[in-house]
Amino acid sequence: MKIIKQIDKIRAFSVEKKMQGKIIGFVPTMGFLHEGHLSLIDKAKKESDIVIVSIFVNPTQFAPNEDLEKYPRDFESDRKACELRGVDAIFYPDAKEYYYPDASTWVIENELSKGLCGASRPEHFRGVGTVVIKLFNSVLPDIAIFGEKDYQQVAVIKRIVRDLNFPVKILTGPIIRESDGLAMSSRNKYLSKTERENALSINKSLFAIKKALIEKKITIKDALKIIEDNITDSGGCIDYIKIVDAETLIEQNTFKNTIVIAVAVFFGKTRLIDNIIIERI
Amino acid sequence: MKIIKQIDKIRAFSVEKKMQGKIIGFVPTMGFLHEGHLSLIDKAKKESDIVIVSIFVNPTQFAPNEDLEKYPRDFESDRKACELRGVDAIFYPDAKEYYYPDASTWVIENELSKGLCGASRPEHFRGVGTVVIKLFNSVLPDIAIFGEKDYQQVAVIKRIVRDLNFPVKILTGPIIRESDGLAMSSRNKYLSKTERENALSINKSLFAIKKALIEKKITIKDALKIIEDNITDSGGCIDYIKIVDAETLIEQNTFKNTIVIAVAVFFGKTRLIDNIIIERI
User: Fold this and answer.
1) Domain B2-173 CATH (choose: 3.20.20.70, 3.40.50.150, 3.40.50.620, 3.20.20.480)
2) pLDDT exceeding 70 applies to what percent of chain B?
3) Does B105 sit within 8 Å of A159, measured CB to CB?
4) What is the mean pLDDT of residues B63-76?
5) ipTM of this model?
6) Is the pTM of this model over 0.80?
7) Cβ of B111 and A100 within 8 Å?
């Protein structure tokens, strides 16, 4: 497995493989890999010939008050995990070099980025969109794979790729959960033992409400209220709980098309997100 | 010479040539080709193995009050000119299909786009940046060639390509002028005979002032005043006359580094631009 820091070198690696007719699969990450990331790597292995993983804690998607500095990093552990999983190359750019000091270009998506996480993190998706395009232009993948835990991120990236005609196919992998149901996240390590237990109110209420909605036992309005009460009663401080159309991300009052319940909650200082997709039967 | 309207087909054409080890040169245009465009095609022929020209009057770089509808078009004449010049393929996307009706993504450059044409056409460079990225992702060129008449456009595109790590080398070709010195432009055809004569005040004053500045006979302030008077006396309505640093596009009060005198002037309803680069000796 190669570890490559320079853009021209990862690009040369990719072009060489492409010239041999190989399909390049790409899993962009911020490192501190857990089974969620590794499931995306497994999917990339199945869908492509060569798998490249990027590890880059992207500064432009963090606001000044957010956790850029303390975001967990463990390159050695990530390297081993990638090696074991059969990754062909890690792209590991230097945070200080990857953006020019006078960079002045942004890739901006104006519709799907507005609500949910975009409402409380107004410049987040501008940073995500810009770095994903930089990474695509560095790695030159045929396929890129993103996790559905960041549901809005996936929607925004698919839209950017569609609108700008990027020659990259976007695939997704489902949320991977701990045995007790908490969605895996690099940020889970911030949680105290009590916060960790209380945070289960997120996934428990999402699963319970999914069942109730499918069985038509409750309305959308009821659903939102129940989740809010459950999480708040467990000490969570809610950023948002929304039920949105799975395609447009527009808030729904009725359960007509496939919907997503998307949640962002603080437990202590740690902001967790989770979601559940509910197909209209 | 192929004429290709679909994105997947131009991409397949390009990938096939790349797999043969060919270098793809690209000249994006809005059609109504003149010797300025053709000089860029000639340069592309020299610098690459396969030359693709796009012809697309990009709606997103026109403001509602601008000349999108009446912008001159003559595909048959353009086709012949490309064929004669040895172009390998014309990419000729359908204006109604190239943007999705619900497109919501923009490529935005925030520094170099601000002044000059960006000041009077505030959304122009957002449209330019976005379409150039769409075109690059459609055509997949190794090299792209732009004309220096749109000096600010070149600077913005170079910045976007640098910041987003696009794997495309940007080359430029010098302004091509009519025998009397007027910079070639598809918009020159809008000019009445009198306007056409009066418009020569632009290039005449630019060349005279270049000489005077090099010979250190005048200051920057004098230079701006003389150009303004010359053009205004000829009936031109000035949008801007600026002397800027050739790299940063920041306005200059003294002639320290290489500068550009950039001008936008209306003669009648027709907005013309021109510029002249003056290297510090």
Assistant:
1) 3.40.50.620
2) 100
3) yes
4) 93
5) 0.95
6) yes
7) no
